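Example 3.2
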Amino acid sequence: MTEKEKSILKKRGLQIGMIIAVATVTLMGFAGQYPRLEKTDDGRSWHVIWEGNLAQAAEATPGAGAGGILGVYIMNHTATPATAYDDNDSANFETWATEHDLGYANADDTNIDIAHSTDFDIVVRVRGNQTHCWDGSQWVDSYLRVRVSSSDLNLAADTEATLVVSENDSGKSFLWVNCYIDEDQAAGNLNIARDETAEITSIKFEAYY
């Protein structure tokens, strides 16, 4: 091999070495940036949109353009609440609630006489408007929640209900959700004996904005 060929190979070796070195430094540099990523505060916090007891829920009809509580339904216990309670028609909930001698509280009816020894679920139907649960381009269901309190029914203070979306359409004015606490979540205590009464002491509908 001539001196010229040796010189060319040496230069190529240096160039390859430099590329590897640069690539290594660059990759290490990117890796070193990850710990510096920080989550910023989105400026949102939870606000109470409506709060009251079961009787007051009957008077809680939202005005035009307002988010709020639509009704509280005492439903016959189902083993599949996530699929049973995704309906977006309040009239259907009223029918289901009364089929088993249970009932509901909303603007149409304030009387709830619960059949004794019947396992039931509590469903709170609400809607949020763009102030409550719109991120600028879409509805966000996690920005809504319902919390219920009832020591008579073995519900600890502000027990959070499970949320099911019943209507999520960016072309609409609201996001509708149904929030349920089923008999299983209440440790088998959503069931009252003959001549017994039980009080739901607090229902809170809240939005994160």
